[in-house]
User: Fold these one by one.
Assistant:
Number 1:
Amino acid sequence: MTHEPRIIVALDVSSREQALDLARTLRPATDWVKIGLELFTSCGPGIVQEIKELGYNVFLDLKLMDIPNTVKKSVNNCMRMGGDMLTLHLLGGEKMITAALEARAGRDFKAHSSPVLLGVTLLTSLERPDLPWPESRSLHEVVMDLASRAKRWGLDGVVCSGGEAAGIKENAPENFCLVTPGIRSGETTQDQKRTVTPSMAVSSGATHLVIGRPVTASRDPLGSLMHIRRELSANF
Ligand code: C5P
């Protein structure tokens, strides 16, 4: 076994009932789910507590990016909601990331968590033509540059594609989290572009796999998740 990856299921649905149904169904196979913009903007902060009451750790993936003061206050609010893992866009810059780290360091009695803080490098739905920088800068270079800033600024990890995890792992502090969405086992990639299989992601050093539609859009979500777990146990 290289290491035991955590599987985080992205609850990308728009209704509270659907989210709670899925969460109850999947609980035997994972204790991490991700609440992203779709569910959060549909149900509001209350959904975080409801999901946590089912025994889950919550990755609150709001991909914060704003001026440092606004991000600091928002990280405070996410801690009050009990988010166990949060995301910040690395393109927000060092001052914004420092403000987020300060918010965590100064958490008060109203905080229900001390979350893992992750930097988002480049979304796995992006390809080189989507980037605004000169062609001479490869997408890989941009991701590596952003990831090395995340390490320097003191974040706990980054969100990247499975194809980038191995490069980022080099020179990363011990316990640096490599959280990889864009996981596909051969089915349609939908809007994702930089995809890898679960096993490829783990071989490259991913510590957490974020899996959405391959599980949540399946006719048998628990069966699909167990299938991925079996594939990983067979390979590692
Ligand atoms: O359904 P799918 O497996 O593509 O879901 C991937 C999830 O990971 C989505 O919730 C998406 O918001 C998230 N994500 C991503 N790429 C990133 C960061 C997060 O796809 N760079």
Number 2:
Amino acid sequence: MHILHVVGARPNFMKAAPVCRALAERLAVRQTLVHTGQHYDANMSEVFFSQLRMPAPDVNLEVGSGSHAQQTAEIMRRFEPVVLETKPDLVLVYGDVNSTVAAALVCSKLLIRVGHVEAGLRSFDRTMPEEINRLVTDRLSDLLFTPSEDGDTNLEHEGVPTENIHRVGNVMIDSLIQLLPVAAQCSRDGLPDRYALVTIHRPSNVDDSESLKGVLESLLQVNEQLPVVFPVHPRTRQRIADFGTHLEKLYLLEPLPYIEFLALQRRAAVVITDSGGIQEETTYLGVPCLTIRDNTERPVTVTVGTNILVGQDRKKLMSELGKVLSGKGKTGKVPPLWDGNAGDRIAEILSRTASI
Ligand code: UD1
């Protein structure tokens, strides 16, 4: 059995690592790892491979940046010959980035089976590029691995046959559990003891100058009550530079490696973010999370975990921050099957359904 994994952007790497590892323990599986090159800076890509102990990619398509159509089309154009040459029995795609949907499209037209890891998540907001990627990828996938019950329900409503849906839990939490002991040993000089950790990169928050201005003003206001530590995504850095906003009062950092970011998350008083994965990681860590979005494709982080959607409503952000500062921040539980064994469950299902 030959399984080909496709990864491309930062949030893919920690999802693929546990699946690659679980499959490597099965002797009859040959694996090929393809990196599309959607993320290419060393601190957005290479460092994750080394910290997650992933093998170097067998193929790097080096597509780089572009508009959505350009990037997706370029991945498809460069990926198709790789599939034709390596002839995998199954292709695994991860999450909701442009690399995910591009690879799923190529394989479904070549009649190669596709497995989607992190299937079924829906924000029901089609202004998000990731929502389009999720809908199309799930529609084209033969095996749908979901992290939580809402994923199964969404897929069933869309008419996906139940036998194709496999609730395996959260692969990203596998990586977190594996590396948390290492993160616990990791400290960073020059940062305050108590801080709010911030990440912002969604187009809806940073591409429109009015929205970005509002978000940055909110962060400056937060910083008056709790120091803000802010590793800045390249997309956001570019927009801030275009915009000329002054943020010297904040602790601005380059994008951080996985372990260093995990170390900052576990010690944070609160996390303020618009990321998808960080809503889940904070829920696992029991750290209150204020999400600068109106909706989430990961509702279990709100119903079970520590997440609160504050949108771009500054009053709500400040009032939730006040609760955190007075020791009344949201507490929660870890959702079922977020236990470090999701990668093994996927390998097990593949060995049953695909005769590995
Ligand atoms: C992508 C994903 C998003 C995910 C995010 C994590 C899609 C549609 N979006 O968004 O779901 O949450 O990754 O980071 O796939 N850039 C660099 N260096 C890099 C990569 C990007 O400088 O290594 C800059 C480029 O200017 C690029 C911009 O960041 O144009 C955006 O990168 P892109 O991959 O298009 O989307 P992200 O915003 O990173």
Number 3:
Amino acid sequence: MKRSIIPVVMLVAAVMLVACGDGSPAVHQTKVIAHRGYWKAEGSAQNSLASLRKAAEIGCYGTEFDVHLTSDGVALINHDDDIDGVAIWKNSYETFTDHRLANGETIPTLRSYLEEGAKYPDFKLVIEIKSAPDPAHETRSVAVVMDTVEELGLREQVEYIAFSYHICKEIVARDPSATVVYLNGDTTPEELRADGIAGLDYNIKIARNNPALFGDARAAGITTNIWTVNDEADMRELISYGVDFLTTDQPELALELTGGNAGQAE
Ligand code: MG
């Protein structure tokens, strides 16, 4: 059974109702991020270019996607750390070029994915740099990803997420202005803020077990994102707490419940 986080509702609601100049309350708008793109759409597949386009076309704030680095330094878009049982980080890009996604696409490289995303300039590209067994490989991944972003002129359109705290700190060290959000759920908002990390992006189970999280994050001045929220009741509950972002495999439902992303263009 879910643990109720009702006791924080009144506190959070009070914080959300920031008075506008005319005395009317400003309504907090939860933004929707498609998890691995809008991959449930027809003709789509997880982490495909089609999933990016479809998430952008329905009005998501952005799409999350996963990046691994091959042994020869090519950043690939794939969730698992292997493809058909072959470890990405220990093998060359050439090893994977014949693989096809469920919709027939080849595996996108980071460059091809970002170039596609650049066609939707108001749409955020939320790059998850995946952990690797070797911290040096993680450091190399960060360098390749951030150099590619820089070459394409997309610094303002990307955000970074990672389970590895080493990766988060490497990104901040390279660009203190980058938006970096931590995934692993084991650090307090105050510690994240102190390390220059812009937000937390935690599993919904952690949100349920730590209902004070939202107020603590707000007090620390960092953003909140919860993954992977696919259930309507969970979405409604989190929206009521003023969560900043929902990461979901059901972006159309989330957009419906949040009232879309109107007025959020940055
Ligand atoms: Mg991911």
